[in-house]
Structures are given as C-alpha cells and as structure tokens.
Design brief:
Layout: H1 22-39, H2 46-53, H3 57-63, H4 67-78, H5 90-106, H6 108-119, H7 124-152, H8 161-178, H9 185-197
Helix pairs in contact: 1-2, 4-6, 4-7, 5-6, 5-7, 5-8, 5-9
C-alpha cells in the first residue's frame, strides 16, 4: 500500500502555478498500484489511472510527465531494502542473497522494473532516481555479501564484483523472461557454486 505520507512530488514532475492537491497524488498512486497489479505495466494507461483516481489527466501530468515517471515513483514508494545478515557463513549468505534477488524479480514490481528501465532510457532524471533509490541499494547489499566473503578468504581477493553481479542478474532475468519455471532452489545452488568456485554449473545428479 502507498503510505499516506508520501505526498511530495518528484522534482522533475513539479509544474509552475498553483501547487496541485497532494491528496490527489496519493489517490493517483493508489489507482496506479491497483491497475498495475491487475493489468501489468503494459496495461497501465494515464487515462485509466486518472479515471480511477477521480482526477483529470491534466492533474496526473502536473505530478508526472509520463507513465514511466508515475510507475517509477510507485516502485520507489514500495522499495524495501533488507540487508543480508553477517552470519560468518559465506555460502549461507550467498544463498540468502540469491533467494532475495529471485523473489524480488519474480514479484510484481520486480517484473515491472525490467520494462521500466527500458522505458526510462530517454528520461535521465527518472532513470537516475530509480538507480539511486532502488537499483543501487539492492546492488550494494550484494556487494557487501561478496566483500565479506573476500575478507573471510572464501572468495578470491581479485574477484570482479560488478561483473559477477551483472552475470547473476542477467541469468535470473533471462530465465524469468524465457524459462520462469527454471527459477527454483537448484538455480540458487548453481549461483552459489559459481560464486564460490567459478566452475561452470553441472547437470544435477539423477
């Protein structure tokens, strides 16, 4: 749910003239949230959001210049970052990290992120906000887990953390788009083994 305190419009969306009613913004976000859950990102339209919120399209555009900016704010409002605890066990921490990544990317807002990043490619302000408030904090959690593994001697000191993070997210995103049924516990084990040993995953024993 959208917190009622989330009424401050993003800087890029502010317009000159009389400030819009902040309660309208909350209603618009509620309407966008419901529509996103029902129809997915591609099914969200400004016309339908405005209709459900009981406002005009002009009011929506006073807060957000386009749909990607609106949905980006919705994603930011829902973003909850949970660090992976330091347990002293690198394998367990990596497994917890991968489970968190898979859970996020298979959830509604995680699936939306892929389309949203592509849609905001020509909107640097919105894309930067997504990176700073959603993508980078999640990436930092993974970075911390890897750095702890390096400090314990469980991972090579010269490991390319950014390349490894890209590899993980790319694999999960690919399977999500083409083989969602392949995202299960075995995927977590494959990723953990890849991180710890650098070996190409083997087929499971039957």
């Amino acid at each position: 749910m959208i917190p009622t305190s989330a009424v401050e419009p993003s800087p890029a969306a502010r317009r000159r003239g009389r400030p819009p009613d902040p309660h309208s913004r909350t209603r618009i976000l509620f309407a966008a949230e419901a529509l996103l859950e029902e129809a997915g990102y591609l099914g969200v339209t400004i016309d339908e959001v405005a209709s459900r919120a009981g406002v005009s399209k002009k009011t929506v555009y006073r807060f957000w210049p386009h749909k990607p900016a609106l949905i980006s704010d919705l994603i930011v409002e829902h973003s909850r970052i949970t660090p992976v605890p330091d347990t002293g066990d690198t394998r367990a921490e990596l497994a917890a990290l991968f489970e968190m990544i898979i859970e996020y990317l298979t959830a509604g807002h995680g699936r939306t992120m892929t389309l949203l990043v592509a849609a905001t490619h020509d909107d640097p302000g919105t894309l930067t906000r997504l990176r700073e408030q959603v993508l980078t904090p999640r990436r930092d959690i993974a970075r911390n887990v890897l750095q702890r593994g390096i400090a314990r001697g469980d991972l090579p000191a010269d490991i390319d953390i950014d390349a490894l993070l890209d590899l993980w997210h790319g694999l999960v995103a690919y399977r999500l788009s083409g083989r969602p049924a392949a995202l299960h516990r075995h995927t977590v084990n494959q990723l953990v083994d890849l991180a710890l040993t650098g070996h190409v995953p083997r087929l499971p024993q039957t």
